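Table S5 (text form). Sequence records supplied for joint modeling of the three-component complex.
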Amino acid sequence: MNDSLPVSSFRRAVWRWTRTRERPLPWRGERDPYRICVSEVMLQQTQASRVVQPYLDFLARFPSVSELAAAEPADVLRAWGSLGYPRRALNLWRTACAVVERGGFPRSVDELVTLPGIGPYTARAIATFAFDAHVGIVEANVRRVYERCFGSGDMQSVADAMTPRGSSARWNQAMIDLGAEVCRPRDPRCESCPVRSMCSWDGVLGASKKPAPPFETTLRFARGRIVDALREREATRAQLLRRTNLPQMRIEDALDALLEDGLIHRAGARYALGPSARERSRPTSLTK
DNA sequence: AACACGGGGCG
DNA sequence: CGCCCAGTGTT
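The corresponding structure-token record, covering 288 residues in total, follows.
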């Protein structure tokens, strides 16, 4: 299937390029699976530059997987700060609990993907960066490079074929950097691209996505405001109504959704951050 | 395959 | 103001 890929020349070109183009990021070269896991979950749908400080703060607060597992989930949510998608923080805590319970991080992709919040990308990221497993990774940056070069299709198999055995961690880091710094979404710097001669991109940018409704009217926005309000202290529904300036309807729907996710719970007349003590061991979803 | 899910950076 | 981001889970 991928016999036609110019594997050797592509690898040579990227290796040559990567020697001088490394981004100084605190998780670069990290080998500890816990610290890699924290960084990768924070990096989901979040630009690297925005993750640096929260990552350092989070690790200072929870230096090891056992300390994270022993923490109050509400405190983990507070430590998440304003990174967004707070369900990531809750799942990270659940993953820490599962890892402690089983006596350490799994090394295989198949086992890693069973952890809450760890999908196909993050499982492979942990496997390659922590254990140098022979797997390629496909996220936004890498996908863009491979698709522009070789066309759309199964990019995971392309990434796996391109990844050299024995140095997968360095390779995958290099591919991410190539996508982030050269093969950028809007204004790619093709003139300084090491694989330009192998690239078949026609320079046509993708079609724009369907317009989104005003963010302030979405349930997402309401959820965010409520979680932010509860970060400080628990509150009644009336207090939330006053503090968030949200329409009552929105509050109702958002509270229901947040309760379902375990991001908040109800204690008497008040709502508070995190799952209730009873449902802390409840699985992430009802179907899985 | 299509949606929901946050928030901030950038042109 | 619209696009994008080291994606995941659900339907």
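Note: The mean pLDDT of chain A is 95.
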